[in-house]
Design goal:
The chain is α+β, with helices and mostly antiparallel strands. It is built from three helices and three strands, in the order E-H-H-E-E-H.
């Protein structure tokens, strides 16, 4: 599996899901995360891994309850 590390915000945008959904997966240890070497305040996730989870288990893409406007990138 190839890795493409992106911010939680970017993963949510590309997959059309709420950032909170991805943050919850990360908080529960269900997806790998790593610190952004350029900004310690930002958490990165493997887009390929997140995509597989949503493709396999589904998700409520575009859910308004999960798509908040906060600027937070981290969990």
């Amino acid at each position: 599996m190839s890795e493409e590390w992106v911010t939680i915000r970017e993963a949510a945008k590309r997959l059309n899901v709420g950032r909170n959904k991805i943050s919850r997966l990360a908080n529960r240890g269900q997806i790998r995360t790593k610190d952004n070497p350029l900004d310690a305040r930002v958490t990165l996730v493997d887009l390929t891994e997140v995509r597989i989870i949503f493709d396999t288990y589904g998700g409520q893409a575009g859910s308004s309850t999960d798509n908040d406007d906060e600027d937070e990138e981290e969990m």
